[in-house]
Amino acid sequence: MPETISIFSPPFHRSINPSEKLWTFWLTDSGQSHVICTPPAANVIKTYSPNLMVHPIMRETPSPSSASTIAAPVVAMLANLHSLVIGPGLGRDDLMQATVAEIIKAAREKGTPLVLDADALWLVQKQPELVRGYKECILTPNVVEFGRLAKAVGVDTGGDTGREGCKALASALGGVMVVRKGLVDWISDGSDQWTVVGDGKGGKKRSGGQGDTLTGSIGTFLAWRKVYLEGSWETEGNMGREETLMLAAFGGSAITRECSRLAFAKRKRSLQASDLTDEVPVAFETLIGEKEESKL
Fold this sequence. Notes:
Blueprint: E1 4-8, H1 16-27, E2 32-36, H2 39-45, E3 53-55, H3 67-77, E4 83-86, H4 94-110, E5 114-116, H5 119-126, E6 137-139, H6 143-152, H7 163-172, E7 177-180, E8 185-188, E9 195-198, H8 211-229, H9 241-267, H10 273-278, H11 280-287
Parallel strand pairs: 1-2, 1-4, 2-3, 4-5, 5-6, 6-7
Antiparallel strand pairs: 7-8, 8-9
Helix pairs in contact: 1-8, 3-4, 5-6, 8-9, 9-11
């Protein structure tokens, strides 16, 4: 299977996050999917499905091992991975954050596409140099996380979290793609050409955890993108790195919003984040479809 995803969601009490994201990967046909976590979390996560590939590598404070030592087996896997999604359920434990920092540095060296969300954004807030200028990286902050990131890199958006604010933050980060999720999703790499809005109709309820569908979808599209850019598939057209990065981000936004719309139509106010996951195959077929019947 050419597309392989890896996720970092270590703590036991946050073990639901990788499950939702992995289902999104599978349902959009990502191929192999791995979750990298702590041993206590692994015992829970493995019970979700026999198909899960779980690696209990991560460690929390206190641990006799250094961050670089813990990161080493993950770094060794990078050559076989097509994208990394880091953050959901990660937590802010010092050792965990330091380990992820080591993995991000190694991923940059190897050119591995990244999606950073949740507590990985906390790490970027503390160490923006980890991603600054890395144009194979997509950040998916909500409005609050967006404001923290802007403050961390010295960007005064004047309270603008829309088009201009998103452009300003992405530009300050050296062209990193930013997906500011919200009522509408603003997407930008800091340029006018690649600044768009994801404003497809969604559901009327926002449930915690919906962002996992977004990052899971983007992670899958980034994996496809890498295979496409490597020329491993027979394809039509000749899209470049910037265009395909934007398509991955926009596609994730569109899939998530359609999942929300479909799930709300069925569940109304009882909607939960996991209900979006059930709608991923339908949303994909509705918006994209297979090659012979593609909507694009």
